[in-house]
Amino acid sequence: MAGNPHPITGITGISTTANVSKSAFISYAKSRAILVMQSATEIRATDLSGQLRLTLFSTGMEYELDVTDTTTPDNGVTCIRDANGLGFFLIVNRREKLTTTRNYYVRTDGDDLNSGLINNAGGAFLTLQRAYDIVKDTLDFGGQIVVINVSAGTYAAGVNVSGGWTGGGTLYFSGDTTTPANVHISMTTGLASCFYVSAPLPGTLRIQGFKVSSTVVSSSGIRVDTPGLIHVGKMEFGSCTFAHIYINSVAVWILRVAGGSTIVGSALYHVFVGATGSLYSNTLGASLSGTLTFSFFALVLNAGQIIDQSTPYTGGTITGARYHAAQNGIINTAGGGANWFPGNAAGSVATQGQYL
Prior knowledge:
Blueprint: E1 25-29, E2 34-37, E3 53-55, E4 62-64, E5 79-81, E6 88-90, E7 96-97, E8 102-106, H1 128-138, E9 139-140, E10 145-150, E11 153-155, E12 159-161, E13 170-174, E14 183-187, E15 193-197, E16 204-208, E17 211-214, E18 220-224, E19 228-232, E20 236-240, E21 243-248, E22 252-255, E23 262-263, E24 269-274, E25 278-281, E26 287-288, E27 291-300, E28 305-308, E29 317-326, E30 330-332, E31 348-350, E32 354-355
Parallel strand pairs: 7-9, 8-10, 10-13, 11-14, 12-15, 13-16, 14-17, 15-18, 16-19, 17-20, 18-21, 19-22, 20-23, 21-24, 22-25, 23-26, 24-27, 25-28, 27-29, 28-30, 29-31, 30-32
Antiparallel strand pairs: 1-2, 3-4, 5-6
């Protein structure tokens, strides 16, 4: 048979006299983590790769395999025969350790059963979440760079960076860094944010080249609930029901290292920092367009910090207060003055808040 078969060894009661390649796998039942084979005589072992998620029913553990690739050697996954003689439980999944940059691709015409490694409809993923889950579950970064490249189009779902990846390094979510509006994450249901960081980061996360907007209740363009280092590049911020950027965690630093971002939609806050989180930027300044409304353009609470030493904000007709700092929160504009942030009402401080 085609493929790169390997025998089972060291498993009591399982025959080691025959191999099976990926071509023998013809279907799967996700809820039971059973792979159905062409015949019981072909059920032995094979190399499989991390491209189709199955949940092991008895333990709830998740593993990966590829049921469509019948030729490519992969990372030694061992299977054992189920009692009915027709299926295998997946019991081992080794991480691939990277030695160079790895690229994955997401497209509106992709499929989450694809490998994600080829930038066409037959190779790319459909969702950002699938791309991140593969990165998180199957790779050891080895200090390398992984780039999730997202092609032009509108995506109804964002991504929850839940559970950190392995091996440090840097993870990019990269859209169109010239015209971010070409890659639009427009959420109407689902996650609390287009980019939601809900687990501590083991390395640097970079987000660049996206338009983000959401009509989900209390949702944000970017939300960070856990410690980590995040760089936000050129973006376009559409309407969000809560904040464009919401930092709600200890020791989070978001550095806007690329200029040229635009704000084209309203929110309660453009940036809200709380829970002793920190936002530092030397290029946070953005251009605004249209008639926009904010409760506070910049809000900091609970010993959070906003350190904004960027270029000035320009454009738009902005309604709302410029800033508010309270509960030991600090906003530092490096002498930018009371009108540094856009708005038609003065900013304010309360309960040991500071504006510098």
